[in-house]
Specification:
Blueprint lengths: L1 H20 L1 H32 L7 E6 L5 H12 L4 E7 L1 H19 L8 E6 L4 H12 L4 E6 L2 H42 L1 H9 L4 H44 L11 H30 L4
Antiparallel strand pairs: 1-3, 1-4, 2-3
Length: 302
């Protein structure tokens, strides 16, 4: 067991030495990996911030409850207070019939309102839902429509459906881009490893002649690929953090112009750990396949 640990530590040191012996080539490869990783990770962060923003914008999912004309103002107030206690309701706003008629007159229909013998408008409750999901909104609409005081419920879910569709499209794009760029990352790492193996072909053949196994030869290259992937993941995380820092003031000013506050969030600790683990595993996978393929090619006579 101690020999296995010692050999792995030796392979790790060899891989690290190879990484720092070619600083410019290693830096270029790490930057390419960082860009490849930061694109899907940046889209993921943008999608997460958009989802968070959707719950903070002033425009909420609202349902208009038109009460029956025989429902009085006090009864409408009691109903509003009762609905406000429901867990799926954010808040309830009462528009009494007199205020609604005044709004109608202020909209340029004063002569029409004055000619009416009586106020035909009902009391209205504007209910803001907590969950903007179209399915949840429709379920809430059906529940409110069954109330005995309610004549009709209006719900405009087009914007909610469009938002849900856009977020779903964003998630699909992030997944597809992550797969494509993950494959590109593995290819980049594998190509770097393949060039190293060909550069050390004579050394590898001598090691085989004195009894070195392919596993022994392969291990330093695997560590090299994993180190490259890890360094690329760290660079991608740093690139995302710097980007978020540069955009923070602009986003804050834009949110302030809409009367709200919003701050960009970066990768949380579990997300950053997942990014580093993914980059390391992709580098390791690219190195594994490249080493296996290239070593088999070395078996053919020159």
């Amino acid at each position: 067991m101690s020999a296995w640990v010692e050999h792995n530590l030796h392979s790790l040191r060899v891989a690290f030495k190879r990484l720092i012996d070619a600083p410019f080539a290693s830096l270029f490869t790490v930057l390419v990996i960082a860009v490849a990783l930061s694109l899907p990770a940046g889209l993921y962060l943008a999608l997460a911030n958009l989802q968070r923003l959707a719950g903070n914008v002033p425009t909420e999912a609202e349902l208009s409850l038109f009460l029956k004309t025989e429902v009085g103002l006090e009864q409408a107030r009691r109903l509003a207070a009762k609905l406000a206690t429901r867990p799926e309701v954010r808040h309830v706003r009462l528009i009494d019939r007199d205020a609604a008629l005044a709004q109608l007159a202020a909209a340029g229909l004063g002569e029409v309102a004055a000619a009416l013998p009586a106020n035909p408008l009902p009391h209205t409750l504007v209910v803001s839902a907590r969950d903007p999901d179209p399915t949840s909104l429709e379920r809430l609409r059906e529940a409110l429509a069954r109330l005995p005081e309610v004549e009709r419920v209006n719900l405009d879910t087009d914007w909610a459906r469009r938002l849900a569709a856009l977020l779903a499209l964003g998630r699909d794009l992030v997944t597809l881009l992550a797969i494509l760029l993950g494959l590109a990352l593995a290819v980049i790492t594998g190509n770097t490893i393949r060039l190293q193996i060909y550069a050390q072909r004579d050394e590898i053949e001598v090691a085989r002649l004195i009894g070195a196994t392919d596993r022994f030869i392969r291990r330093p290259f695997l560590y090299f690929g994993a180190l490259q992937g890890l360094a690329g993941g760290l660079a991608a995380w740093l690139l995302l953090a710097v980007t978020a820092l540069l955009l923070e003031d602009s986003v804050a000013r834009l949110a302030d112009s809409y009367g709200t506050t919003f701050r960009l969030t970066g990768l949380a600790a579990p997300e950053a750990a997942a990014l580093l683990a993914t980059s390391t595993l992709l580098g390791l996978a690219g190195a594994y396949f490249a080493v296996g393929y290239t070593l088999r090619g070395l078996d053919t006579p020159r």
